[in-house]
Amino acid sequence: KGGLLTPRVPEKMRGGKPGLAVSWGLLVALSCLHGTAGLWGEAGAPAADPPARGCAVRGTCVASPVCPCDVGTPGCEPGGERCPFPGAGAPCVDDSGAPPSKASEVAPSIVEACGGDWAPDDEVCCTDDQLSSLRDRLATAEGLLGRCPACMANFRRFWCAFTCAADQSSFVRVSNSSTCDPAAHPGPNKGKGGGCEGTVAASEDREVAQRVRVNVDKAYAEALFESCRSVTVAATGQRVVDVAFGGAQDAAAFLHYIGSAAYLSGQSPMLMSFTLSPPSLAAPEAPAGPPRGADEPW
Predict the structure, then answer these.
(1) Are 196 and 90 in contact (CB under 8 A)?
(2) Confidence band of 253 (pLDDT split at 50, 70, 90)
(3) For the whole model, what pTM was predicted?
(4) For the chain, which has fewer Cβ within 10 Å, the N-terminal or C-terminal residue?
(5) Which of 168, 198, 169, 166 is nearest to 182 (CA)?
(6) Which residues of 145-159 are buried (b: 16+ CB within 10 A; e: fewer)?
């Protein structure tokens, strides 16, 4: 069945029992103007049919941007022929069917990057090179959102779950991908205008994700937005969502801006389209999957 990106339940809250879900009232949605509170409570009711474990993307296929032009200028559309990978860290499509790997083997820095919700024994769909890129992006976000610890903790948890959750393939679908052809883009993959030579994509003939669709639990997305919407810039008093997130007024607009604006400016490796859906315990049956490049709804 199709799943959703939801708050991850740490092992220490599961009591070693699989299949427990977090009650939505437990993800704190209070802004820092109304006081700081914890982000987790007790585990909720057992999930009758937890999403299957599996990965949609895994590992870095193209480390540096392949875009020898100014992103967004005429003839230099992100994801286009001249600029197939505008952002650093484009991940490999994982359609191998291989199960998630133990974090201690492929992502030993996960606790450092994502905090104590994760443990070395956890199964994950990310690798250490992906976590390195994630840390850089989270550091940028912390400069904006760090005045509110609750907001930043929720923001970190969201992106760590998106990147590493062992059931990633239940809520992420690759809708566009491409190869990285050294004949079309010669030169080593170094710096902004690098080519495809030496990339994992070229050496292993792998498909590289360019666009993904992400199904997110609506309550979770709204809690994330509510915890961040009133954070202000210290120097000006302006809301951060107005300065850096397109003036988003709700969770859908907040995620849409994050998923599209960063990619269109060359700051993100993928274009991300988010769909907010009812809780995952009532998720509808997901279709087998559209052909790459299809654009129909989830």
Answers:
(1) no
(2) very high
(3) 0.80
(4) N
(5) 198
(6) beebebbbbbbbbbb
